[in-house]
Amino acid sequence: MTRDSKTPAPGGSPRLLTPSRRTFLKRSAAVGGMTMLAGAGVGEAMAAGDDNLPPNVPEWMKTLGSSVTAHPYGMPSQYEKNVIRRNVGWLTATEESSINFTPIHELDGIITPNGVCFERHHGGAPDIDPDQHRLMIHGLVDRPLIFTMSDLMRFPSVSRIHFIECPANGGMEWKGAQMDGVQFSHGMVHCCEWTGVKLSTLLAEVGLQKSAKWLLAEGADAAAMTRSIPLDKALDDVIVCYSQNGERIRVENGYPLRLLVPGWEGNVNVKWLRRIKVGDQPWHHREETSKYTDLMPNGIARQFTFVQEANSVITSPCPEKPMKFGKGFYEIRGLAWSGHGRIKKVDISTDGGNNWHTADLQTPVLSRALTRFRFPLQWDGRPMLLQSRAMDESGYVQPTIEALRAVRGLNSIYHKNSIHTWRVKPDGEVENVQIA
Ligand SMILES: Nc1nc2c(c(=O)[nH]1)N[C@H]1C(S)=C(S)[C@@H](COP(=O)(O)O)O[C@H]1N2
Ligand SMILES: [Mo]
């Protein structure tokens, strides 16, 4: 039954369903009465070349498998070779100053595996010897200090699960839909468990002077990327990280040390962190003047728009994952996140935003982390305009594209977090569209 429905859909909306055991059982397979949506009967499963299917014994049961020394560092199954980061050739002039995208449509839950976390570099990923890496903290401090990696690892540590999102995520679509897939429309985001030392701990070690108000964080890459960060945020929840999902940070995500600035635009999460300077005002470097600003319709650019506001997207179905089983049951799946804190609610529409239904949120719902939502749908085979709309604990609601454009105009690149629309066609194919 529909839940949280406001008004009847003009022309009728696809039927929504709260799954019951009965519905699932309808097309169960003939094997042991197990519940399945479209399982094959025993007879049907036997076709030519299906030697590995029941009732035969598959070939992998007839010989020993690989030894415990075969894979000292494990890799995904060879059958998962399409679950990879991908880049878009035309997007950037070089492949060093460039970006690739997380295959979010292939992932479950909320944690992004290290090998498929999107990468954004301005000068390529440096190969840093941790023994020759240092973090220097200087400027308006009582005791300027240089830390080795082992110094940093001796401090009290914390682990936190947070997303990092490039503010350019979705930025190619201010003027209209153009990315052919959710990997490219929304894949500049990942969510990992980050471990390190709180920046406040290190700042206490060096001793802040009274006039301290801003920090400059610098990376040890060829771009020497620098960003100004206000001291309140630095003292609140910023972490100087050395681990990502339990192991040392991957080279491409900042090995051996990166800054994690929870909920704030990816760019300030400086990778390959080598220096923090304490000052009394921002530095106005390249990445906070010519880039990572929001050009408003009146020609004035907003600067230091740090927070990644609430966003969400349906990751299944999507152009890469069409509804290819015809009418029937589908679980709509997706991700929501907010730089302001926890996701409070995600609504789903199948009719382009006329009616909204509340999705289930996978718990625990963590602050400034990806949140998995799910919604059961009984598809009647008619076209749909599928949307998700996130609301966070601050009460902020993800805007429509018109509402966002009304304020921001069309000159922006960054911080496009509008409600996304997938058009589902009767054949189940899914198209990226924008609707007025
Ligand atoms: N030193 C350094 N830090 C950097 C960058 C960079 O090019 N150099 N890119 C930034 C940008 S624009 C983003 S979106 C995030 C991306 O983090 P990731 O590569 O781990 O996904 O790193 C940020 N930190
Ligand atoms: Mo970025």
UniProtKB/TrEMBL annotation:
Keywords, ordered alphabetically: Metal-binding, Molybdenum, Oxidoreductase
This protein's record includes keyword Oxidoreductase: yes
Record-annotated Oxidoreductase molybdopterin-binding domain positions: 122-283
Statement: the UniProt record of this protein carries the keyword Metal-binding: yes
Pfam families referenced in this protein's UniProt entry, alphabetically: Mo-co_dimer (PF03404), Oxidored_molyb (PF00174)
SUPFAM superfamilies listed in its UniProt record: E set domains, Oxidoreductase molybdopterin-binding domain
Cofactor section: Mo-molybdopterin
Domain of life where this protein originates: Bacteria
Molecular-function GO terms, alphabetical: sulfite dehydrogenase activity
Gene3D superfamilies: 2.60.40.650, Oxidoreductase, molybdopterin-binding domain
Enzyme class, first EC level, given as a word: oxidoreductase
NCBIfam families: sulfite_DH_soxC, TAT_signal_seq
Protein name in the entry: Sulfite dehydrogenase
Organism whose genome encodes this protein: Ferrovibrio xuzhouensis
